[in-house]
Amino acid sequence: MYLHLPLILYLVASALPSHASLFSRGSDHLLHGIGSAHRHAVKRSSGLAHDLRRALSGILVEQADSGTQHVYCVIDPDQAMNTSLTGNGGTKASGTTSASASSATSTAASSPWKLKQEYQGNSFFDGWTFFTASDPTDGTVQYVDQSTATSTNLTSINGAGNAIMRVDTTPKVSGNRPSVRITTNYTYTEALVVLDASHMPTGCGTWPAFWSNGPNWPAGGEIDIVEGVNTYTNNQATIHTNPGCSIPSANSSVLGITGTVVGGTNCAAAETGNQGCGVRSTSNTSFGAGFNGIGGGVYAMQWEDSGISVYFFPRSSIPSDITAGAPQPSGWGAPMADWPATDCSPSKFFYDHSAIFDTTLCGQWAGNVWNDTGVPGQSESCAQITGTSSCSEYVQNNGAAFAEAYWEVLSVKIYQTS
Length: 418
Description:
Elements: H1 5-15, H2 20-23, H3 27-33, H4 41-44, E1 90-92, E2 114-120, E3 128-131, E4 141-143, H5 146-151, E5 155-157, E6 163-166, E7 177-179, E8 181-184, E9 191-199, E10 206-213, E11 222-227, E12 236-240, H6 252-255, E13 260-261, E14 277-280, H7 288-293, E15 297-304, E16 307-314, H8 320-323, E17 337-340, H9 346-349, E18 354-361, H10 363-367, H11 382-386, H12 391-397, E19 406-416
């Protein structure tokens, strides 16, 4: 008598203890209590918290939550209609357009989410487009093509098999400082996107993000999963849409989330100065130096008919079903952020997304809050910290300061139910 290996694996996976109960009490508070939530701010420290630099132009909107806040959009309105994130202004990475960097099959049939695309290991950069146009958010940055990124060591696979995306550290530059922005060639409508990272860009002048975007911004919608600036330590997740999308309340308890609403309840970019609907994590290890200090962790964005949610799990508290490749979001507890379909139908406002990494410098968020304090992680302004009055001047003349401005990514996995 014998058992098939898949069945054995299934039984073992089912027997493993679940960590879901850890999060049922509010993941951000628990993560803080156990020193887990290590913010994603490593490379993107241009904290999007309130300054959601969304896709249009990144108009500043002041908030009174934990000090002066600013919300920005990632896409510049002047470029939204004529610059494709996966076409114009970019160079395609080697590898197939629609095939995953490595296409794997989930080993556990118990999860409705099936692995469609996986970017990991030596083939991580296959299936991405390197964006090379001018920065839509007016940063002091020059995005480079894949060949340049490879030859100048801005991208690499380290000894641990993890993907590295760096900001240039040349001591002085006369213009914009080189960096990397990449977009998946694979597109999806409804998905579970899982990012496992051990480090993200951080430091004054940085503005890193991991996000997704649809066509004809903001018609196809934008979902900011990880974003922040400068020395921020608390991640902000945000959505930007066409008019007609909102969240039913700004009250975290009503929404059933562990984060705090910071950008209002109207998610329409054109009606809110591009701020959208932002939610800030209450964990000071969810972004930047805090995130890096705990060895990073996992961000998961679940997009289905019932709504869009973002979860964060510090390295020490990653659910076993994620590790097993058979994610079960229903057991993860309360999300950090949630935008329910009750007042914003995903099928109407979001479609054909690509996932994006970028690290810009200064620009409409990190640059505009250079003199500000009051946001978690920013007890002193970057002007005070650096002794430099201008973000651009600092970026151009202090290359060594960007040694921590890099992403280290173990994997990006895109799951879908069909």
